[in-house]
Design brief:
The protein is of the alpha+beta class. It is built from 2 helices and 13 strands; from the N terminus they run H-H-E-E-E-E-E-E-E-E-E-E-E-E-E. It is elongated and about 85 Å long.
Length: 218
């Protein structure tokens, strides 16, 4: 599943970069067009006659404009910064407990065998609803054998990943609010569900998994 999730994130990043490249190209073309229009208008200007006296224009009092620094966008969107909310994010399920932590874990039945978890597993009531831990945009929905549906939500340079979903009631491109229901967690054993939850930091085209336990409020 790790490779599928990373591939989906890289594909989404590449698509975003292509969109930005096209926007930048269009912006440069528009700049060139405006410069050419300005040059044409400058060439059409008539040279004013110097032997004709122009009536003196009365100059009124100079209006003094007080400079004010622009409003801080950080101040207005402090609650919308994913990184600033580390340790305060809501749980991706309304009730549940972490049954497998991030990183190295002992195999439940095989002695001396360890597994590496890129996220955390949260055991919760059967058919619990998964919810977004922060506002963002759905960047990918993939199907993984044994892990049901996987929903990836983009939060700037961060991605939250929700796996083991029986269904997803969101689609790619949807704007999501914090605690919004995004799907139903698959039943495991018929009486409970286990949500696999990951957080990734995107650096260029690479991704780095982070410990979700450090981001979720306790």
């Amino acid at each position: 599943m790790k490779s599928r999730v990373n591939a989906a994130i890289r594909q989404e990043i590449a698509a975003s970069q292509e969109i930005e490249r096209k926007k930048e190209l269009a912006r440069k073309k528009e700049e060139v067009r405006k410069k050419e229009e300005a040059a044409k208008k400058e060439n059409k200007k008539e040279v004013p006659k110097t032997d004709v006296l122009q009536p003196e224009k009365k100059v009124g009092p100079v209006k003094v404009v007080k400079y004010e620094a622009p409003l801080s966008t950080e101040g207005s969107i402090a609650g919308k910064n994913f990184e600033a909310n580390k340790g305060r994010l809501p749980s991706p399920v309304s009730n549940g407990s972490i049954t497998e932590k991030y990183g190295k874990n002992a195999h439940p039945t095989l002695a001396g065998v360890y597994t590496n978890n890129n996220g955390i597993d949260i055991t919760c009531a059967g058919s619990s609803k998964a919810r977004a831990v922060f506002e963002g945009v759905v960047s990918a929905i993939i199907n993984v054998n044994g892990a049901g549906k996987v929903v990836i939500i983009k939060h700037g340079n961060y991605r939250s990943v929700y796996s083991n979903l029986q269904d997803a009631n969101v689609k790619v491109g949807d704007k999501i609010s914090a605690k919004q229901n995004i799907g139903t967690v698959m039943l495991d054993g018929g009486s409970f569900s286990v949500l696999h939850f990951e957080i990734h930091l995107v650096v260029g085209l690479s991704t780095q998994s982070l410990n979700p336990s450090l981001w979720i409020s306790r």
